[in-house]
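Let's practice the habit of predicting before peeking. Look at the sequence and jot down your guess about where helices and strands might fall. Then scroll down.
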Amino acid sequence: MNGNHTPNLNSDDPKTPLLPVHDPIQRSPSSNSSLITSLLTPNNFYILLGPLLCTLICLLVKLDAPVTSIYMLAILAWMFSWWFTEAVPMPITSMAPLFLFPLFGIASADSVARSFMDDVIALVLGSFILALAVEHYNIHKRLALNITMLFCRDPLNPPLLLLGICATTAFVSMWMHNVAAAVIMMPVATGILQRLPMGPIQSDVVGKFCKAVVLGVIYSAAIGGMSTLTGTGVNLILVGMWKSYFPEANPISFNTWFFFGFPLALVIFFALWTILCLLYCSKGSAQVLSVYLDKAHLKSELEMLGPMAFAEKMVLAVFGMLIVLWMTRSITDDIPGWGALFNGLAGDGTVSVMMATLLFIIPNKKQRGEKLMDWNKCKKLPWNIVLLLGAGFAIADGVKTSGLAEVLSKALDFLEEVPYLAIAPMVCLVSATITEFTSNNSTTTLVVPLLIQIAKTMHVHPLLLMVPGAIGAQFSFLLPTGTPSNIVGFTTGHIEIKDMIKTGVPLKVFGIAALSLLMPPLGAYVFGTNGEV
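Done guessing? Here is the structure:
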């Protein structure tokens, strides 16, 4: 210490004084400049951008509508600028309606808070607790290894093995979030690839197969998530907004979505497999790869897991029971399902939370008094997705109650004469482009309210545009930053951006075409889009 410093006036008290002691050493100009530099950062600019846009819109925008519609537009600009730039963590931005809506007179604090907890969010919480139980007891790994072994034939057939890995990933992703599915399946896939030569001695055939496997896992996780309501947050946001905007219409249940999402995902999945085989599985690959790959590695990993314990069997039974209850709550008009026993009061979230509760009651038979799940195991619950869902529902209500929905509807009158087959691919393409630069969930929250107004202007069923917009937001196939599951694949070192673009472009084009063509007939059959809302 420099002897010139003022001594501590309270030498017997180790705490720092409440008031600073005068330091004769003056702050140098360089420290002042470093303070300015630390303040003038891109992140601080992005933080200020949100309130700045909000203020400019409030002061400069004039609409022939209630003033609350201008305030709602300003709030949207604030929130979406923070979401796109990630200046503030996404979950915190998602909570902004809780203070912005009451302060701007859009809605009361109570009504906004209700948006953050409804049946769809209950469905998310219950299903994620079950997914955490599956992950905790390694059921996903056992399932993945067993299914992959079915496709690992002797002699080796690389396209068939690739199909097995991709199909397993897609299946796992149907029942848990696609990012979790990619995280779970990537070690299984790279474990198979570890038997192949790496580095300078790696042949072109081996390198291409490694790329195919990693790309197959990340894309299959995204495609599998489209199949079910719980597979990705995008589907849940869409369903929640449908319920919020059209409360009198039939809600989209788990099995309703499955009958639409599964056939569509199946078509896109086989397109993915075909593209990967054409690009990365050459004719001589079987002969080269069979030297290194066989069932022995998979069998040894499976044996390391040991026989299924009581806890694993019970988690699997609870999960299976939940799927059956989801699928049978509402079947057809002639066969109403078990939901009719409760006069339609029970929802998919009801059984999701009920079955999750069983995990905290059933013993795991490992230690006395220990249950299948405890709250410590639930600390990894994705509250960011829960809050984003709540924000999406709050925005949907705010756009409607503020009068902004009517303003948008009038502004889009010019689309009235545009044919559906011209607008649907465009909607899907716009969503699929935006989603490469921001999260799938944020993209959906942004585009779906706008698509509802476009559908009203065109006099078409809203789901004919809402569904392509939402599913298009899941086509983040080109960049590693498009979705966290892409980053999972990118960190393996087996793929580069050019590989993603090479595979992602044809896959995205096929996905947009398939969705645009299948939506009218499949939507009419499943959602009744040929009728009125």
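How did you do? The radius of gyration is 27 Å.
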